[in-house]
Amino acid sequence: MDRLLDSLHTAPIIDKDGYEYLVHPITNGVPMLDPALLREVVVEMIRRIDTGVDKIVVPEAMGIHLGAAVSLQTDVPLVVIRKRPYGLEGERRLFKETGYSDSEMYVNDVDEDDRIVILDDILSTGGTLAAICETLDEIGCEIVDIVVVMRKVGGESAFEDIEYEATSLVDISVSDGEVTIHRSVADESE
Ligand SMILES: O=P(O)(O)OC[C@H]1O[C@H](OP(=O)(O)OP(=O)(O)O)[C@H](O)[C@@H]1O
Ligand SMILES: Nc1ncnc2[nH]cnc12
Fold first, then answer.
1. From edge to edge, which strands make up the β-sheet containing 78-81?
2. Which domains occur in the chain, in start order?
3. Is 174 in the pocket of ligand 2 (CB under 6 A)?
4. Among 125, 151, 152, which is best to mutate for testing ligand 2, by the most ligand atoms less than 8 A from CB?
5. What are phi and psi of 9, to 5 degrees?
6. ipTM of predicted complex
7. Residue 116, exposed/middle/buried by CB under 10 A (0-12, 13-18, 19+)?
8. Average pLDDT per run of 10 along the chain, which is 190 residues long?
9. Residue 15, Cβ neighbours under 10 Å: how many?
């Protein structure tokens, strides 16, 4: 996890209307994503999921590179929850709130009884993952694992109100222009 931990200390932090926002290769694709960093993260994510599931589900946009890499390695099909509707039969709309935006997303191709792994880059206010889990529950899927690269700790999380647990590779806080690392999976092997 050296690459991920090092990259967190060098990532720029910008102000989004008072919200301290980390600009990181995994969460933004900016600064550019080193393949060795992506590989390190994806290997750790795959270690933490049941690869015998029916589908990997990721939200657009910054779940896509992670989901694509995990899908290639595991042969599990990838479903992307999109920010635009296609109007296809069975499409479901969800409403999500994050720390800096409110928006709609659209779920296609997830069916009752599907066994699902959800992946994403970051769990921050939890609004995105809470909305996704609620919608997959309504459809009648089984959410087997939820894995994120980073979890922001120290704030309120909508995700705490729901029955699922998310595994993170690293827990961070972002404050006064600095990232603090609270825990990482690297600690588990010590
Ligand atoms: O826990 P939350 O507060 O919901 O924040 C986490 C979400 O925020 C980001 O997505 P964003 O909606 O900014 O879209 P992007 O992936 O297109 O950058 C990120 O990729 C997560 O999906
Ligand atoms: N890149 C990011 N930095 C800080 N908080 C976030 N919440 C969602 N994405 C984030």
1. 78-81, 55-59, 115-123, 142-152, 167-175, 178-184
2. 2-181 (3.40.50.2020)
3. yes
4. 152
5. -80, -15
6. 0.97
7. buried
8. 96 92 97 98 98 98 98 98 98 91 95 98 95 97 98 88 94 95 86
9. 9
